[in-house]
Amino acid sequence: MDPKTKQMILSALCKHFSLDSAPFLGGAAENDVKTLYSNVLKASGKEVSAQINEEVLKWLDFAEGLPANSKDCFAALEKLNAELAVKSVLLGNGLTPSAADVAVFSALHSSVLDLSDSDKEKIPHVIRWVNYIQNKEELSTLFGPIPVKLPQFDFEVSKSVIKVDANTNTKKAAESAKPVDKSEAQPSTKKTEPEEPKKKATKQKDAKKEKKKPAETEPANKEAELSVSLLNIQVGLIRKAWKHPSADSLLVEEIDVGEGKVRQVVSGLAKFCNPDDLANRLVALITNVKPGKLRDVMSEGLVLCASNEDHSVVEPLLPPAGAKPGERVSFSGIEGKPEDVLNPKKKQLEKITPHLYTDESGVATYKGIPFMTSAGPCTSSIPKATIK
Asked: d(Cα 212, Cα 172) in Å, to the nearest integer?
């Protein structure tokens, strides 16, 4: 590994551990990456378990063995892409990158920076991870940011879906009308039938009509209940977070949604997020859920979180930088006024959340339509995740 790359790794590790890099730079050229990491870790005073330390050292071997040339490095990037397809970071709980993430990012920086847009498209999980690490660890202050193109969406798709639905409803209405026309015409064609059977048949058909009416309107009501427009999803800024006083799995957050006061929200994030990492972080918050107490602590909202398949990694959705606290998340082609307060008895939320997920680029969607803010879509570092 060339001295410049070692120096980049060393500077990034010092920033990760909140240390001044100046005392370590003198020995950067002579020492290998593992030694540099050990020196920085020791100086930080932080304790790392033997198992985690062993995993970090394995990734440092990977970083040190990377080819300097970006073309030769692409095979290694493809392997890394496969590794990151099922995890958000190399080591950590999804919101807290490790020293391994920082070191590998620094080693790959120049190679990824030189990639063409077409090559970047071949390694979407690496690019998603690169964007997350450089922003989360603020590494752009040490070396130039790697430009990442945000996904482009063709919102006409959603319009065509709506059009098809409308045509389907029209077709259903036409089909349901046919038996009515037939039943009305039938009595006039059978002139020889006695009067009493005629009246009896008419009454039976009228009864069938009455039974049909609720069935015909039921799908429309169900569709209204399933619309994401019923949810008031707003951008929120976490001002403060702390552990729930009587529940190990819960955190309590104070969230600003532009109301002039903060909302207190209880979330099941204690196993996945450090409270300090959540402070000053944007989130997507459902603000029209019914307020209630969770283990004796009042909660006035629901933080939407992405989760991988086995729920081992969970993290709040991330609105883009520039989104304003209080603005409502929108969905192209879907209009409607949110409920003042969701009715728990109707299970509206339970019917909508199965349609919330992140796409392969980590963009949060409802039935494939992105969660949009004034600054762009809400995202997650977890692709193809469920959202609840």
From this structure: 13
Residues 6+ apart with CB under 8 A from 335: 229
What does the alpha-carbon distance between residue 142 and residue 11 come to, in Å, rounded to a whole number?
Answer: 8
Q: How far is it, in rounded angstroms, from Cα 364 to Cα 354?
A: 13
pLDDT at 47 over 80: yes
The two three-digit tokens of residue 356, written as one number: 């919330």
Give Cβ neighbours of residue 381 (< 8 Å, ≥ 6 apart). Answer: 88, 89, 94, 128, 129, 132, 315, 362
Residue 229 above 60 pLDDT? yes
Q: Any idea which residue has 């998340």 for tokens?
A: 329
pLDDT value at residue 243: 94
* Burial class of 148 by CB neighbour count within 10 A (0 to 12, 13 to 18, 19+): middle
C-alpha distances (whole Å) from 310 to each of 98, 250, 306, 307, 364 are 21, 19, 12, 8, 18
Q: So what's the pLDDT on residue 281?
A: 93
Residues facing 93 on adjacent strands: none
Mean pLDDT, the chain, rounded, equals 82
pTM given for the model: 0.49
Q: Taking a C-beta distance cutoff of 8 angstroms, is the pair 369, 335 a contact? A: no
CA 290, CA 313: separation in Å to the nearest integer?
Answer: 27
Residue range 122-144, pLDDT digits in tens: 888 899 888 888 888 888 778 78
Q: SS3 for 47?
A: coil
Alpha-carbon gap, residue 239 to 82, rounded angstroms: 36
pLDDT digits (tens, 9 = 90+) for 310-345: 889 999 999 998 899 999 999 998 988 899 999 888
Report the alpha-carbon distance of residue 33 to residue 31 in Å, rounded: 7
pLDDT of residue 151: 52
Cα dihedral: 334, 338, 344, 348 (round 10) = -10
Residue 379 near residue 132, CB atoms below 8 Å: no
CA angle 376, 377, 380 (to 5 degrees): 135
Cα–Cα distance measured from residue 258 to residue 379, given in angstroms and rounded to the nearest whole number:
21
**Contact assessment for residue 374 and residue 323, using Cβ atoms and an 8 Å cutoff:** yes
